[in-house]
TrEMBL record:
UniProt keyword annotations, A-Z: ATP-binding, Nodulation, Nucleotide-binding, Transport
GO molecular function term, any single one: ATP binding
Family matches, as InterPro entries: AAA+_ATPase, ABC_transporter-like_ATP-bd, ABC_transporter-like_CS, ABC_transporter_ATP-binding, ABC_transprt_ATP-bd_su_PQQ, P-loop_NTPase
Tagged with keyword Transferase: no
One matching Pfam family: ABC_tran
Native source species: Alsobacter metallidurans
Keyword Transmembrane helix: no
Protein name: ABC transporter ATP-binding protein
Similarity-based family: Belongs to the ABC transporter superfamily.
Amino acid sequence: MPIAAERPARESAGPKLPSPVMTAPVPVIAIDGLTKSYGKVRALDGVSLSLEPGRFTALLGPNGAGKSTLFQILTGLFVADSGSVRVLGADLAADPTAALARLGIVFQQPSLDLDLTVEQNLAYHAGLHGIGGRRRRDAIEEALALFGQSETRRQRVRTLSGGNRRKIEMARALMSAPALLLLDEPTQGLDPASRRDLVLHVSRLVRERDLGVLWATHIVSEVEAADRVVVLHRGRVIEDGAPADVVARSGASTLEGAFLALTQGRAA
Ligand code: ADP
Ligand code: MG
């Protein structure tokens, strides 16, 4: 008798264990085979990536790796040449409204209106997402509290420090309760203490709210405590794993060394 025919009888004899497929968490995003070229420049070359809720994933790549291009595609600003993106099962191409509704984004270029107050900036965003009336006040208050920014509510953005401006952008991105927060070099131009502060705030939200985070950067030191590191180089994912595993596989002794070995062909 063929082995395959025996299998059902054997399985039904013992206690039924949950299958690993059934217990795997549903990905917040499933990216499959994305490619994107600008003329002759191939910015993304077959990027596949699946992210889980409640995990802080670093997208580590040198300048020009394709990080911003990936984010522009994920947020529907650009269309990929090929490949697909699903956000909580919703296909970005077929059902962009459903897919984009569950994404929050902080772009590489700061995008607050400097002459408006913090509250005015957030109120405008709330309106775009259909949050109105009393709910809007509450949503603004709650978002600011997440980043310890309640006191800045009536201040013009221009008067805030760079780090606090970034916190306001992150708070704004969370107002629509996204399942996945995309952050494109959110610490650019900030001093090390402000960078660390932002990482700590976001890490806490990942744990407390089961939020998925994809944090793009080329600064290795700020993502050493990430749950997972995905290295993007010349439009390709060339390494993916827990920081300790990435270091061990590279033969280097630090994540910085692993990153240099992977992207510049030298160990440190
Ligand atoms: P990163 O964000 O990792 O620095 P980008 O996605 O900005 O990388 O860029 C990836 C590659 O695509 C680079 O070679 C860059 O010069 C090129 N590129 C990015 N945006 C454009 C664009 N709008 N037009 C032409 N080339 C672009
Ligand atoms: Mg970029």
